[in-house]
Amino acid sequence: MMNLLRFASVMDLAAWRGLVFTIFILNFVFACQLLLLPPLVSALDGKPGDAAEMFERVSQSIKVKRYSEALDDLNAAIEGDPNFSEAYWHRASILRQLCRYEDSEKNYKKFLEMKAGNSAAEKELSQLLQAQSALETAANLFDSGDILKSLDYIDKVVLVFSPACLKAKLLKVRLLLSAKDYSGAIAETGYILKEDENNLEALQLRGRAYYYLADHDIALRHFQKGLRLDPEHSELKKAYFGLKNLLKKTKSAEDNENKGKLRLAVEDFKAALLLDPNHPAHNVHLHLGLCKVLVKLGKGKDAVSSCTEALNIDGELVEALVQRGEAKLLTEDWEGAVEDLKSAAEKSPQDMNIRETLMRAERSLKLSKRKDWYKILGVSKTASISDIKRAYKKLALQWHPDKNVDNREEAEAKFREIAAAYEVLGDEEKRTRFDRGEDIEDMGMAGGGGGYNSFGGGQPFTFHFEGGFPGGGFPGGFGGFQF
């Protein structure tokens, strides 16, 4: 009997414990319902309540561009109530802005199933389809090289309806780089990196823009930051090591020039230019450096070509004009040299070195236009006075008008020229002045010591030397003549 009572007591205790545990579980579930269900119940009942707060939170997240947080809130709301139509619409809108077009389209269609005929949602769905088509078109135009039209599609369609589309933003940066709008590319990548400072593609493209502006130190910092995040990123590695190689080859060229190793400098400048022909901001200086070295080597024709390349990039580069002027002097293009040096002097009027070089070029041009008496007599500039007399006598006999009856006019002109040449070169003082480049162009025509007067005006022409022609008279007694 005692055992039976003890057993009943034990059973009563277990039952009480079970009852207490059951009551605890029920209260816990009820508490959870009180905490978690009111927002959903409120939304389903059409009360603003927590649904309004949730949409306000989503709106704030979008304003600060925390799209993932906004989507998390909407995903939770839809998971709690699959029939929460407004949440589908908001989610569709965010996905459209991010250009997640397929997911966005599904959400718009889900909303329209619940709220058929909603004109605002139908309009946004139409905008989505326009943006999706425009993004595809822009990418195709970029591939085909139609940069400006591609930019139009990105700016006027895609980023209007999908302002948070990273894919479109990065494509726009690539388009700006292709259009050589490097400042624009830097600005656009700045916006992207402000939202995500570790975006590798933005770092690479921004570094590329600085590279093409020849801001190489800043470009290197962008490439280095990207490589610290991903050491195996192929585009960043290519850009980084390509720039390092270019700077190394450029420095080698400049060092060799400074050391007087001019031929090595020429090879280094040419090698640096081959590394990236599409880098004008840097190549302009390489072309100029190469031109200067070639001028020093006396290779005028090649120097003209290199300086012209520099001026094709920057037509206002004064030093390139000066160096090309020097190169043209080497090639005896006197007029071209004067033209370049005049232009340089106009751009830099205070530079006395340019003025001196210009004066030298103008003097060379003037000398080039005067008659070369040495050439007329067929003697070298080092010819002795006896060589000059001998040459003159031979030519005077050959072109004496009385001996050229059939071509008298030509002979008279030749004879005047020969006589003028001898008038200058046969006189030691006049020859010295001529050799110095003094302006004695008409000295041989002045009727000086040799008694020479020009033909013309019907006046008689006489030419005589004391005792006849140098070395004796003409054969046949032509000690002097008149006609």
From TrEMBL:
Q: Which Pfam families match?
A: DnaJ (PF00226), TPR_16 (PF13432), TPR_2 (PF07719)
Q: Which residues form the J domain?
A: 372-438
Compartment(s) of residence: Endoplasmic reticulum lumen
> This protein is called what?
J domain-containing protein
**Annotated SUPFAM superfamilies:** Chaperone J-domain, TPR-like
One Gene Ontology cellular component annotation held by this UniProt entry: endoplasmic reticulum lumen
Query: Gene3D superfamilies, from UniProt?
Result: DnaJ domain, Tetratricopeptide repeat domain
Statement: the UniProt record of this protein carries the keyword Cytoplasm: no
Using the record, list the residue span of the signal peptide; answer none if the entry has no such feature. Answer: none
Supply the alphabetized keyword list: Endoplasmic reticulum, Repeat, Signal, TPR repeat
Q: Name the InterPro entries for this protein.
A: DnaJ_domain, DnaJ_domain_CS, J_dom_sf, TPR-like_helical_dom_sf, TPR_2, TPR_rpt
Q: Which SMART domains did the record assign?
A: DnaJ, TPR
Start and end residues of the TPR repeats are: 200-233
